[in-house]
Amino acid sequence: MTVTHDLPGAGEQVLLVGLGNPGPRYAGNRHNVGFLVLDEIADRIGGRFKAHKGGAEVCEGRLAGRRVVLAKPRSFMNLSGGPVSGTARFFKIGPEGIVVIHDELDLPYGAIRLKFGGGAGGHNGLRSITKSLGTQDYFRVRFGIDRPPGRMDPADYVLKDFSTPERRELALNIGLCADAVETLIDKGLTAAQNAFHGR
Asked: What per-residue confidence (pLDDT) applies to 121?
């Protein structure tokens, strides 16, 4: 029997979390793609981010007819869990209503994959969130950044800006990832997977 996971009912708020590191030094890094996708979604809903006591920059609005809270943790990536759980508690949103958007080394550049639950896969931001929430049962939207070339340390690679060829496609790929988030909210996980996993 296949178990499908979807977000809570239409009347419930959804928390969209973009992962990254705060400050201009990191703004264009591969590790900050979650922030970039949230910036695109904020533009779509006409919202602006403001500092929030939960520990994140927060923007509220409606996406695909749903009330959404966008959150960019103000902590560094490895400590994302505190701001995520704090913001979720403030808005009374359970783990099943949380969607985390993050970079993924094990996917080709620009590939988009959506899933519910699962391990951290070596991603320290996810590890911190899972620890703070006390569960791994939340949604993830993964944006492929590919593996580092040669013998480059992955920890160095994720903290470098996208390459010139990658930047040519970046706005398009960020837009597609935002589309995937919107489809997840509007039509559910299976529909979003069917629409975006073949790209």
From this structure: 82
Mean pLDDT for 111-135 is: 93
The angle formed by the CA atoms of residues 147, 77 and 74, to the nearest 5 degrees, is: 145
Query: Of the candidates 25, 3, 11, which has an alpha carbon nearest to the alpha carbon of residue 160?
Result: 25
Active site positions, annotated: 31
Question: In 107-175, at which residue ranges do the beta strands (DSSP E only) sit?
Answer: 112-116, 139-144
The secondary element (H helix, E strand) that includes residue 55 is none
Do 180 and 114 contact (CB within 8 A), yes or no? yes
Annotate 53-99 with DSSP letters as a single string.
TTSEEEEEEEETTEEEEEEEESS-GGGTHHHHHHHHHHTT--GGGEE
Residue type, 179: D
29 among the known binding-site residues?
no
32 assigned ligand-binding residue: no
Per domain, the residue ranges of the chain are 14-196
Paired sense of beta strands 139-144 and 112-116, if any: antiparallel
Residue type, 173: N
Count of Cβ atoms closer than 10 Å to residue 38 Cβ: 26
- What CATH code would you report for 14-196? 3.40.50.1470
Query: Global pTM?
Result: 0.95
> Is 76 annotated as ligand-binding?
yes
Digit-coded pLDDT (tens) for 16-34? 999 999 999 999 999 999 9
How far is C-alpha 168 from the geometric centre of its chain's CA atoms? 21
